[in-house]
Design brief:
The chain is an alpha+beta fold and about 1000 residues long. About 35% of the residues lie in helices and about 20% in strands.
C-alpha cells in the first residue's frame, strides 16, 4: 500500500486548493499515484549507490518543502495549479535516472558513451586497467551518477489539465544537472505559455531546492552505522563518510527573514571537526555560485517571475566549531621565496643542471611521440637539435629543439608552468601509456618532479619557448628574469608573435610542425667563465635512444650505434711477458711462475640478461683477471729473521690488478708491509722497503705488459667511459677498474651506488630503460634507491659474465685473483656483494629505512652449488618486484636477492630449529595475494614447531632475523586483517614488519599486543 508521503508536504495543500479553483480535482489522484510510484522506484537507488546519502522519499519531501520555503507566502500565492503540479512531480522524479537494473548497467558499461567517458576522464580508464579491465564499483557509480539526468525514460505519461506534460517534466528534471546557462536554450522549457506554467522558473526552483537539501535528515545515524562509515578505510567509503558527516553537522537554513532584492539566507551548523567545517563552507560556496547564476538567469527571462527575489548568498556564522576557532589556518607558500628556492643554488648542485633538465624533457617527449606514432602506425624520425651561440650583445644562448609531442596553451599552463606538477605523473599521461601498452609497448619517462623549467634561471635571465602540440595549436611563450610572469601568444588568435632567438638569423615565431623549441639566455653575471655547452652536455648524455645534434654535428653515438659495435664479446688473453716477470722479481722480490697469464674482456651485458628484461638492460662490461702463482722471496727471507707471530697474517698478500695509463694496460703490483714497524724490520731490509716507497701500509708499482686498449675495436671507436661527470675526463688518468656508469633513457646517473657495490672489481656501463629507472633525489644528482628487479638483473648479468670469463683455478694462497684483491675467485664473488649502508623501500607507501651490512653470508656459500643456482638464466624470467627488500635481519644484499628469487620460484619446506637453518626444497609456489602485496620476501615460512609464532633465525649463535610461522593459527588471523592494518595503522604495521625481520622478540611481543587490541574488521 502506498504511503502517500507527498500529501504531507507543504506544497500538497497548495496544489489541492489551486486545482479546486481550476476545476481539475480529477488530476490530483494521478499526481499522487505518480509520486507513490516514484517513491517505490527510488528505493532501488542503494543497489547502485550503496554509500550515497539518501535519495528516497525523504529527499523528495525535503525538496518540496524547500520549494515552498523559497517561494514564501507571496510566491506560493502567485503559482498556477500546473506550476504547482510540475514542482511536486519534479521533486519526486529529478533523481529517477539513478535507478538502474542489472541488465541496464551491464549494457551501459559496454556502450560507446562509457568509452568516451574514459577518454574524458583518464583516472577512470587507469582504474579500470588496474582492475584487469573490470569496472570498479566506484568508477561505475561515478559514471552512472554523471548520466542520471539524461535518463528520464521512467517519467510517467501524465495529462494534467488536459495537457500532456511528460516531455516538459523530463526537461525540468534534466535541467537540474545541466549548466544553468543552457536552460534558456531548451525549447521544451518554453513550450507552455508562461501564464499557464513558467517552466524556466520551475527549473530554477528545482535546482535551488535540490542543492539546499543539506541537513542530517539525508544522513541518518542508522544508515551511517549500517555502512560502517566510522571505520571507512578505502577511498570510496572515505568520501561517503565525509559527505555523511557534513550532512550530519548541517542543522538548517532559516527562511524566516525579511526578503528584498539582496536578501541572504542564514545557515546553521554544529561541527566537531575543522575539516568537516571546511567542507561545509566549500559547499556553501557552491550554493552561493548557484544563487548568482539563477538570479542572472531569471533577470534575462521575461515573465512574472523575472523579478522574483531569490537569495543572493548564504549568511554564515563566523564559526560553526564546537571547541575550536575556525579560520584558514593552513600552510601557504610565499611565491617570491618559493621561486627563489627553486631557482637558487641550494636546490641544485650546480648552475648547469638546467641543460640536463631540458635535454631529458626533450628525450621524454620524443620517446612519447615515438610510442604514439607507433600506436597510430605513422612514420616518425625522432631528433633533437641543440644550438649554442653569442648574440650581438655578447650574451650566450642555448636553444634545444625537439620534434616531440609539443604543448598547447593548456599543457603549458597546467604542467610546464606549474611547479611541482609534472605531466608525466598525470592521469592524462598514464592513461595514454596504458592505451599504448597492448599495441606498441610501454614507456617510463625520466622526468618526474615538474620543476625542470625553473632550473633555467640558475644560469639564465630569459627563457623563450615556441611549441606546437601534435593535436593542438601553436603557442609562443616568453618568461622574464623574475620567473613570475609570462607572455603568452597564440596562433589561433592571430597574435603577432615575437621571433624566437636564432644563431643564424633565420627567424621564426610559431613552429609549423609538432615539437618544442626552448631558448635560454645566459646571464653573464652568474658565471665567472663562458660555458662550454658541448662538454656540459657530454657529461649528462651517454648513448641516448634519440640522435642529438649540436650545431649540426652529432653530439654522441646513439644506444643503437653503440650496441651494434659491441654485438660480440672481445676477449684478449696473454702470458705475462718474461721481462715483466724479471722486473717484478728484481723490484719486489716476488717470483711469478712462467704459467702466469692476464685476461681482458670487453663484454656485451645484453648477452647475459634474462629474456624477460632484455629490452630494459643493455650495455658493456670490462673485466680483467690475472692468474699469477708466485713465490714470495722477500717473505721467505724475512721469516728466517723474524718470528711468524710478529708478521701480520694478512701480510702474506701480494696483490695483482690491472690499470690503464694512456690506453696502455699496466699490471699493478701491491705488496702489504706485513704490519711491521721500523723496529721489527731487520737492518738489511730497511733500505729496500724505503727505496721501494714504503708508506706505512703497502708499496706498489705499474708494469707495462704490452697490451693497448685500442686493440679492442669498440673501445677505440667509443672511447668507453671517457665522458661522465662522475668519472675522470682525463683519459691519461683513466682507470677502468671499478668505474660504474648507469644511464636511464640516455641520461647519466652516478652508478657508484650502495645497491650496486662492486668495489674495485669491474667496470661497466649499464644502459637502463623504462621501468629500470632509479629513484633520485629532488635535484636528480644522486641515486637514492634502485628497484630490486633492476638490481637483481644487473647483478645476475654481471655474475654470469664473470663466471664465463674466469676459467682457471688454483690452490688458495697461491692464486691471487684481481676480481677484488682478496681470497680465491669463488669467494671473491661473494665479497663483491658487500653493501656498506643502503636503504630499503616497502611497497605500500615507499617509506625508507636504513640499515648496515653483515660482512659474511648467512647460510649461503658459493662453493655448495648456490652460485650455480643463482646464475641460472631462468631464475628471474618474468620476475616482478615493486619493493626493495626490507631489513633482512643483519643480513646483506646477496641474502636479499636470494630471498626475493626463492619467494617466487621455491617453496620453503621446513625450518631446522636444531641447526638454526632454513631448508629449501623444490616445490610448487603457493600463491597468496595478501602476502605478495603487503609483505616482503620470506616473511611467512612454515616452522616445525607450530606453537611458535615468531621463529628466530641464527647465524653463529647470533639472532640475525625472524619470520612468522605460517603454520601457526595466528598467521591466518593477521593475514585476514592485513589490508585494514596497513591502511589504518601504517606505523604499527611497519613496526610489526621491522620487529620480525630484526628478530627482536621483545619488540615483536610488544607490537603484537598492540595489534591484538585493535578493532580490525
Amino acid at each position: 500500500m502506498a504511503n502517500d508521503n507527498v500529501m504531507h508536504t507543504k506544497l500538497w495543500s497548495v496544489l489541492v486548493d489551486k486545482m479546486k479553483t481550476t476545476g481539475s480535482e480529477d488530476d490530483i489522484g494521478a499526481i499522487k499515484k505518480a509520486c507513490n510510484d516514484a517513491e517505490a522506484l527510488l528505493l532501488q537507488i542503494p543497489a547502485t549507490f550503496p554509500t550515497y546519502t539518501l535519495h528516497n522519499a525523504t529527499h523528495c519531501k525535503n525538496v518540496c518543502n524547500l520549494m515552498f520555503d523559497i517561494l514564501g507566502e507571496d510566491g506560493v500565492e502567485r503559482l498556477t495549479s500546473l506550476e504547482t503540479a510540475l514542482l511536486i512531480l519534479s521533486a519526486y522524479y529529478h533523481d529517477i535516472g539513478m535507478v538502474y537494473d542489472p541488465i541496464e548497467k551491464a549494457s551501459i558499461l559496454a556502450g560507446h558513451e562509457f568509452l568516451k567517458f574514459q577518454e574524458d576522464y583518464p583516472y577512470a580508464f587507469i582504474k579500470i586497467k588496474e582492475n584487469n579491465d573490470e569496472v570498479p564499483d566506484d568508477i561505475a557509480e561515478w559514471y552512472f551518477r554523471s548520466i542520471h539526468t539524461k535518463r528520464m525514460e521512467r517519467i510517467p505519461d501524465l495529462v494534467i489539465e488536459g495537457k500532456s506534460i511528460k516531455h516538459e517534466l523530463a526537461a525540468i528534471c534534466k535541467s537540474h544537472g545541466n549548466n544553468s546557462k543552457t536552460i534558456l536554450q531548451d525549447n521544451l522549457l518554453t513550450s507552455f505559455p508562461k501564464e499557464i506554467a513558467d517552466l524556466v522558473f520551475c527549473s530554477v526552483l528545482l535546482r535551488i531546492a535540490d542543492i539546499l537539501d543539506f541537513d542530517k535528515t539525508r544522513a541518518p545515524d542508522v544508515l551511517f552505522e549500517f555502512l560502517k562509515l566510522k571505520e571507512a578505510d578505502n577511498t570510496r567509503f572515505e568520501e561517503s563518510k565525509k559527505e555523511y558527516l557534513k550532512h550530519k553537522s548541517a542543522l538548517r537554513f532559516d527562511f524566516n527573514v525579511a526578503r528584498n532584492d539582496n536578501w541572504k539566507l542564514p545557515f546553521f551548523a554544529r561541527c566537531e571537526d575543522i575539516a568537516i567545517e571546511h567542507d561545509i563552507r566549500s559547499f556553501l560556496d557552491a550554493i552561493d555560485k548557484e544563487f548568482i547564476e539563477c538570479n542572472e538567469l531569471l533577470s534575462k527571462h521575461s515573465g512574472k517571475w523575472s523579478k522574483f527575489p531569490l537569495p543572493v548568498s548564504v549568511l554564515r556564522s563566523e564559526s560553526y566549531g564546537v571547541n575550536y576557532q575556525y579560520g584558514q589556518y593552513l600552510f601557504t607558500l610565499e611565491q617570491d621565496k618559493a621561486i627563489e628556492l627553486f631557482t637558487g643554488e641550494n636546490l641544485y648542485p650546480n648552475k648547469t643542471v638546467f641543460v640536463r633538465e631540458l635535454l631529458q624533457n626533450s628525450i621524454d617527449t620524443v620517446l612519447h611521440r615515438k610510442l604514439s606514432t607507433h600506436y597510430g602506425r605513422e612514420s616518425y624520425q625522432p631528433r633533437i637539435d641543440v644550438f649554442t651561440w653569442k648574440d650581438n650583445e655578447n650574451y650566450q644562448w642555448l636553444r634545444i629543439d625537439d620534434n616531440g609531442m609539443g604543448m598547447d596553451e593548456r599543457k603549458i599552463r597546467e604542467y610546464f608552468l606549474n611547479a611541482g606538477k609534472s605531466y608525466y605523473n598525470s592521469d592524462e599521461f598514464r592513461a595514454e601509456i596504458l592505451k599504448y601498452e597492448e599495441h606498441s609497448g610501454s614507456y617510463t619517462p625520466i622526468s618526474r618532479f615538474g620543476i625542470g623549467v625553473l632550473s633555467c634561471f640558475l644560469a639564465g635571465d630569459k627563457v623563450e619557448v615556441s611549441s606546437h602540440s601534435h593535436n593542438g595549436n601553436p603557442v609562443r611563450l616568453s618568461i622574464g628574469s623574475d620567473a613570475k610572469y609570462f607572455k603568452m601568444q597564440l596562433k589561433e588568435k592571430s597574435h603577432n608573435a615575437d621571433d624566437m632567438p636564432t644563431p643564424d638569423g633565420k627567424e621564426f615565431s610559431f613552429l609549423n610542425m609538432p615539437g618544442t623549441s626552448i631558448a635560454v639566455r645566459i646571464a653573464p653575471f652568474r658565471h665567472a667563465y663562458e660555458l662550454d655547452f658541448k662538454e656540459i652536455m657530454l657529461g649528462y648524455i651517454k648513448y641516448p635512444e634519440v640522435p642529438i645534434y649540436h650545431n649540426g654535428e652529432k653530439l654522441t653515438a646513439t644506444d643503437e650505434e653503440f650496441l651494434a659495435d659491441i654485438a660480440e664479446d672481445e676477449i684478449i688473453e696473454m702470458p705475462i711477458p718474461q721481462e715483466v716477470i724479471e722486473q717484478v722479481r728484481d723490484r719486489f722480490k716476488v717470483e711469478i711462475k712462467p704459467t702466469a697469464r692476464v685476461k681482458l674482456g670487453l663484454l656485451n651485458i645484453g648477452n647475459y640478461v634474462t629474456d624477460a628484461n632484455k629490452e630494459f638492460l643493455k650495455g658493456a662490461l670490462f673485466l680483467s683477471d690475472v692468474y699469477a702463482p708466485y713465490d714470495d722471496i722477500f717473505y721467505d727471507e724475512l721469516r728466517q729473521h723474524i718470528s711468524a707471530d710478529v708478521i701480520d697474517k694478512d701480510g702474506e698478500d701480494v696483490e695483482f690488478c690491472i690499470r690503464v695509463v694512456d690506453h696502455q694496460v699496466m699490471l699493478q703490483i701491491l705488496r702489504n708491509d706485513y704490519g711491521l714497524t721500523d723496529h721489527d724490520i731487520p737492518f738489511g731490509y730497511r733500505d729496500w722497503i724505503e727505496k721501494k716507497g714504503r708508506d706505512g701500509y703497502r708499496v706498489s708499482e705499474l708494469f707495462d705488459i704490452g697490451i693497448n686498449m685500442n686493440e679492442f675495436k669498440w673501445y677505440k671507436k667509443q672511447a668507453l667511459f671517457d665522458s661522465s661527470p662522475y668519472l675522470s675526463n682525463n683519459i691519461k688518468e683513466f682507470r677502468p677498474i671499478g668505474n660504474l656508469m648507469l644511464t636511464h633513457n640516455g641520461i647519466v646517473y652516478d652508478a657508484n651506488h650502495r645497491m650496486l657495490e662492486f668495489g674495485n672489481t669491474i667496470s661497466f656501463i649499464a644502459l637502463c630503460y623504462d621501468k629500470f629507472r632509479p629513484d633520485l633525489t629532488l635535484d636528480r644528482s644522486n641515486v637514492q634507491l634502485i628497484p630490486l628487479i633492476m638490481n637483481s638483473e644487473i647483478n645476475l648479468a654481471i655474475r654470469k659474465a664473470i663466471k664465463g670469463f674466469v676459467t682457471w683455478d688454483a690452490p688458495k694462497n697461491i692464486f691471487k685473483a684481481t676480481m677484488n684483491g682478496i681470497g680465491d675467485y669463488k669467494h671473491s664473488l661473494v665479497n663483491i656483494f658487500y653493501s656498506y649502508s643502503y636503504k630499503i623501500r616497502l611497497s605500500d607507501d615507499h617509506t625508507h629505512y636504513s640499515f648496515n651490512h653483515l660482512s659474511s653470508l648467512t647460510n649461503f656459500d658459493c662453493n655448495n652449488g648456490w652460485y650455480d643456482y643463482f646464475a641460472r638464466s631462468n631464475m628471474i624470467d618474468n620476475f616482478e618486484c615493486t619493493y626493495l627488500v626490507p631489513k633482512y635481519g643483519n643480513g646483506h644484499l646477496l641474502d636479499a636477492i636470494y630471498a626475493a628469487l626463492l619467494q617466487k620460484y621455491r617453496v620453503i619446506k621446513c625450518y631446522d630449529s636444531e641447526n638454526h637453518k632454513i631448508v629449501f626444497e623444490d616445490g610448487d609456489v603457493e600463491h597468496n595475494e595478501i602476502i605478495n602485496e603487503f609483505y616482503p620476501p620470506l616473511f611467512f615460512l612454515p616452522a616445525n614447531n607450530e606453537e611458535l609464532l615468531l621463529v628466530l633465525r641464527y647465524h653463529n649463535d647470533n639472532v640475525v632475523g625472524g619470520f612468522i610461522n605460517k603454520n601457526n593459527k595466528e598467521s591466518d588471523w593477521i593475514l585476514a586483517r592485513t589490508e585494514t592494518l596497513s591502511k589504518k595503522y601504517p606505523a604499527i604495521f611497519k613496526t610489526f614488519i621491522t620487529a620480525v625481520y630484526d628478530g627482536d622478540k621483545d619488540e615483536f611481543e610488544k607490537i603484537w599486543t598492540v595489534i591484538k587490541s585493535l578493532q580490525l574488521f
